[in-house]
TrEMBL record:
Keyword hit for Lipoprotein: no
Subcellular location: Cytoplasm
Gene Ontology cellular component annotations, sorted alphabetically: cytoplasm
Organism: Stenotrophomonas panacihumi
Record protein name field: Heme chaperone HemW
GO biological process, one term: porphyrin-containing compound biosynthetic process
Length: 384
């Protein structure tokens, strides 16, 4: 029996000051003035169109992702949140995150995001090394990044994530360590620590920069940084996510736990479980901002709808759950996929035999240290 899990709201804001050469997100360099008001109108029409998918359900978190959501003035974010809270049931005190590029921070702006209801900021820092930031094509330097985080803290933000990347072109282990130490000095509650990947359809993929650390060096950096993060009180709870106690990102946790999310905005993806229809629907929106704005609110804005075939659900479930250190329970698997525990018997036996997964309590499984090293291989065992 499929039981609808907790629900989140994801809102995609697709513009950036300029496109970073490593980035494959749906982000577009801003040319001239951006149509903030028109885009918020489109978001509200899009939300109205999708409301029947989630009638009566409580929304437990909101995440403004990008792109660079901090390009949007606080008044536009406020207007969207007011419209959304009039249409959806927001859980009291729900987490509302806004992704922020330090190069867009202005004095006085953070107070107004806070007043609009945004209670968590996620800063795209990447590195505190100015030469590295230049090689990454970033629009800010390290001093601006530190200033932006302090401005947010002065405005009253006490729940802040810093995104860092490692295995950067020409980066040494000592430099990766230095990035973390400078991050710790700012006392964030959460750190996301991503290995730079060369994604197809990016400038870095077409013309890889010189000096990308090889796999062994990247692994050494990861292990060393994991230790530093643990010593500084940031517990790893997912492949790239580390948090102070009780400061895990509620929105991303729901996503990795195979929770539901409504995806609003250009290129946004959603996943919604229907208890009545006993299926999981994936829906995505048109990627291009202008096309999206012209069509939002109608069927034409929907890039695609797919009912996930039952035989693919174990793989999709594990793709998310096995990223988490907490692992999963077989009862939760059944509630979120509608499948009986038998569907897992063979792959679980194989994963145990290879030392990749361990049963902690009756019916509760989590990846071992070896399993975490081979996350992709473990997940593949659950392919139909
Ligand atoms: C959508 S961006 C949001 C933040 C904001 N746009 C910015 O960059 O300042 C989310 C994060 O993904 C990470 N990221 C983007 N491209 C990546 C890549 N190719 N490899 C690893 N991490 C990447 C960066 O750390 C980035 O901050
Ligand atoms: S600012 Fe962020 S979303 Fe925009 S291009 Fe750079 S990494 Fe991508």
């Amino acid at each position: 029996m499929l039981i609808p899990p907790p629900l989140s709201l994801y809102v995609h804001l697709p513009w950036c000051v300029r496109k970073c050469p490593y980035c494959d997100f749906n982000s577009h360099a801003a040319k001239g003035a951006l149509p903030f008001e028109e885009y918020v109108d489109a978001l509200v029409r899009d939300l109205d169109h999708d409301l029947p998918l989630v009638w009566g359900r409580v929304v437990n978190s909101v995440f403004f992702g990008g792109g660079t959501p901090s390009l949007f003035p606080p008044e536009a974010i406020d207007r969207f949140l007011q419209a959304a809270s009039a249409r959806l049931r927001f859980a009291p005190g729900l987490e509302i995150t806004l992704e922020t590029n330090p190069g867009t921070a202005e004095h006085g702006r953070f107070d107004r995001y806070l007043a609009a209801g945004v209670n968590r900021l996620s800063f795209g820092i990447q590195s505190f090394d100015d030469a590295a930031l230049q090689r990454l094509g970033r629009i800010h330097d390290s001093a601006e990044a530190e200033r932006a985080v302090k401005l947010a803290q002065d405005a009253g933000y006490d729940n802040i994530n810093l995104d860092l990347m490692y295995a950067l072109p020409q980066q040494t282990l000592a430099q990766a360590e230095d990035d973390l130490l400078r991050a710790f000095a700012l006392e964030p509650t959460h750190v996301s620590h991503y290995q730079l990947t060369l994604e197809p359809n990016t400038v870095f993929y077409a013309r890889p920069p010189k000096g990308i650390p090889d796999d062994d060096s990247a692994w050494d950096m990861q292990e060393h940084c994991q230790r530093l993060l643990a010593e500084a009180g940031y517990a790893q709870y997912e492949v790239s996510a580390y948090a102070r106690p009780d400061r895990q990102c509620a929105h991303n946790l729901n996503y990795w736990r195979f929770g539901d999310y409504l995806g609003i905005g250009a290129g946004a993806h959603g996943k919604i479980t229907s208890g009545a229809a006993q299926h999981v629907l994936r829906r995505w929106k048109h990627k291009h901002p202008q096309t999206y704005m012209a069509q939002a609110g109608g069927e034409a804005a929907i890039g695609g709808d797919e009912i996930v075939p039952a035989e693919r659900l174990p793989f999709e479930y594990m793709l998310n759950l096995l990223r988490l250190h907490e692992g999963f329970s077989v009862a939760d698997f059944s509630a979120r996929t509608g499948l009986a525990a038998d569907a897992l018997a063979a792959p679980l036996a194989q994963a145990t035999q290879r030392g990749w997964l361990e049963e902690t309590d009756a019916g509760r499984w989590r990846p071992t240290e070896l399993g975490r090293r081979f996350t992709n291989d473990v997940i593949e065992l659950f392919l139909d």
